[in-house]
Write a structure and sequence with these properties.
By secondary structure, the protein is α+β, with helices and mostly antiparallel strands. The chain is built from 7 helices and 8 strands. Helix 5 runs antiparallel to helix 7. The mean pLDDT is 97.
Length: 241
Amino acid sequence: MGLFSTLLHIYKKSQADTINELKNELQQKRGFTNFSKLDFANSNYQNILDNEVYSKHAIFYLITQTHGNWTTIIELNVNVDNPFYLYDLTNILSKQLDTYALSFHLHDDDVLYYNLDKQGESLDGYNSDYQYFLTEPADKEEVLSQRHIPESFSIILPATKNTDGLNKILNEGYWEAFDNNELDENGVPGEDKYFIDEQDRFERIGKYLEIYSKDDYPFVDWLGNLTKLSLSDCYLLKAER
């Protein structure tokens, strides 16, 4: 099985504000009634993962301190009846926090999605391989209706970056093959040159946006990078119904 990773980045809002609105949404709209902060440090994180995150009936989110302009929520585990996922909270948290919210979901190392919302308005969405879950090849108009709009990032891009550079990363693989009329009869890229390592793409997007820093984006494989995150400054939220 490949890597699954779900993240939500909040623009120019503090860790405390993010936690408060996250709890409010979980309580008021999602039926959670019991919240606790777990002691999660570099010295004990494996015990917490084994004895809480991977074994208890709850949702677990790790909320980082602010890095640059971004506070990050990492979905560590969802183990509840009638589950929902962190990306489902993108729009409402952008509204309640009055800011931009950017969620990512990497599915089995095969396909990458994002949603960018601002103050409750959906600005852009991305699907790195629109054909992935389809059983029949999509027609051109359907594919075009799913095209991403990187210009939506213009306000939140670092000063040294531009939407053309972001678009180049986003278009690699499926979208480049689509533009070059090189999707095969099944609607997928017909040549090996269009193969993309989606984890690598995800990391390059994070670096381009400088969500953590211009040289690192440790959130995709969060489990392998936990010791980079100064866990004593993070907030591990456990939410139970």
